[in-house]
Design goal:
Belongs to the HSF family. Its main location: nucleus. Keywords: DNA-binding, Nucleus, Stress response. It comes from Paramecium tetraurelia. This protein has helices at about 20-30, 35-45, 80-200, 220-230, and strands at about 5-10, 15, 50-55, 60. The chain is α+β, with helices and mostly antiparallel strands. It has a domain at about 5-75: Arc Repressor Mutant, subunit A, CATH 1.10.10.10. The protein has a 4-stranded antiparallel sheet, with no helix packed on it. The chain is rod-shaped and about 195 Å long. The N and C termini lie far apart (about 175 Å).
Length: about 230
C-alpha cells in the first residue's frame, strides 16, 4: 500500500485518501471483490465512518478505528447492529429508570402514608390538649368569678358596717345635742324665773321716787337678776 494513495493522519485517529483513481486500481481490488470507490465509501458509511474533505484529500474517521489499536476493531458495528444495540441500551435504561421511578413512587407513597398517620396522631394530641386547656380556662374563670364575688361581698359588708357605725355616731351626736338643748332650756327657764322673782321683789315696799317704773330701761335690780342668771 503506497502512502501516496492512502495513509493514517498524523494523529493516528483517521485515514486519508489522497488519490481515488489509484486507490481503485492498485488497492481496492486486492482487499475487496470490487474496485469501485463509491462502493467502498458506502461500506464505510455503513460502519459509521464519517467523511471529511480536506486540502489533501478525503478523511474518514471512526471512534474505534485508531492506529495501533486492533482490539478496538471488534467494537466497530454496522449501522443497523449499532442502532439495535443503542435501542436495546435505551430500552434497558428506560426500563431501569422506570423501575427506579416506581421504587421512588413507592417510597414517596410510604412516606406520605406515614406522614398522614403522624398528622392524625398530632391532630388527636392537639385536640386533647385543646380540650384540657378549655377545662383549665373554665376552672380559672370559676376561680376568678369566686374571688371577685368575695371581694365585692366583703367590700359591701365593710361599707354597710361603716354606714352603721356612722349612723350610730350621728345618733349619739344627735342625742347629745338634744341633751344639751334640754339643759340650756332648763337653765334659761330658771333664769327667767329668777328674773321674774327679782322683778316682783323690786315692787314690794314704797315706790322709789328715782325709779321710773313705766320706763322700758333696765331696772338695776333687774340687771342684777339678769347677771345672776348666768351663774
Amino acid at each position: 500500500m503506497s502512502e501516496d494513495i492512502i495513509s493514517w493522519t498524523n494523529q493516528g485517529t483517521a485515514f486519508i485518501v489522497y488519490n481515488q483513481d489509484l486507490l481503485e486500481k492498485n488497492v481496492l481490488q486486492n482487499y475487496f471483490k470490487h474496485s469501485n470507490y463509491s462502493s467502498f465509501v458506502r461500506q464505510l458509511n455503513l460502519y459509521n465512518f464519517k467523511k471529511v474533505k480536506s486540502n489533501e484529500g478525503f478523511i474518514f474517521r471512526n471512534n474505534f478505528f485508531r492506529k495501533g489499536t486492533k482490539s478496538m476493531l471488534q467494537l466497530i458495528k454496522k449501522r443497523n447492529q449499532e442502532d439495535s444495540a443503542i435501542q436495546f441500551a435505551v430500552q434497558g435504561e428506560h426500563a431501569s429508570r422506570q423501575k427506579q421511578e416506581q421504587n421512588l413512587f413507592k417510597e414517596c407513597a410510604i412516606d406520605i402514608k406515614q406522614t398522614n398517620t403522624n398528622l392524625k396522631e398530632d391532630m388527636k394530641l392537639l385536640q386533647e390538649t385543646s380540650s384540657c386547656l378549655i377545662d383549665q380556662m373554665q376552672n380559672l374563670n370559676y376561680v376568678i368569678n369566686d374571688v371577685i364575688f368575695k371581694v365585692i361581698y366583703n367590700q359591701n359588708v365593710d361599707i354597710e358596717l361603716k354606714f352603721k357605725q356612722v349612723g350610730q355616731m350621728l345618733q349619739a351626736i344627735n342625742e347629745e345635742l338634744k341633751s344639751e338643748k334640754q339643759s340650756d332650756s332648763q337653765t334659761l327657764n330658771q333664769s327667767l324665773v329668777r328674773k321674774e322673782d327679782c322683778y316682783q321683789d323690786s315692787k314690794v315696799g314704797s315706790p322709789n321716787p328715782y325709779v321710773d317704773y313705766n320706763s322700758t330701761a333696765l331696772n338695776p335690780l333687774d340687771y342684777e337678776c339678769f347677771l345672776d342668771s348666768f351663774f
